[in-house]
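Quick log. Single chain, no ligands specified.
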Amino acid sequence: MAAQQTNDGDPGTGSSAERLWSTSVGNDLAFLLARANALSLARMHTVLAPFGLRTRSYSVLSIAASDARPSQRELSDFLRLDPSQIVSLIDQLEGAGLVRREPDPRDRRANVVVATDAGRALVEEARRTVIDSDRAWFAVLSEDEREQLFSALHRLATGAAAQFADA
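-> predicted structure:
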């Protein structure tokens, strides 16, 4: 699975960085996944900045805007973030009037996180921008490749979550 080389330091670009891509790391799936993630996060932060959001806050707000009514613990587990990080994200979103905490009807000791009307409107607008950005970023892949990538990543994310639940 050797990477193609070109000129700008990325696979396929033929510059001095080609030396680095030709090392074993350039063919390491975990490295490639981490690099793609870093590039995707940088892109997402740029796309979400006009909305006052970052990837994590967008994720929390998007889930809160659904009918899932997640508890803070569920958000922590699903997003693989420390509970204190979730509290901080929710505090920020709540301070901006985008979400509110409500008692969890399944567990009176817990709260669920629900988007406000303003939060729903903001995340819907942000989602359209994210979809446009995704479309442009993934244009290097055919529709079939995008579907295969989604399927493989979904299997990895759900399978790894089960495998490393306590990690």
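The chain is about 60% helix and 10% strand.
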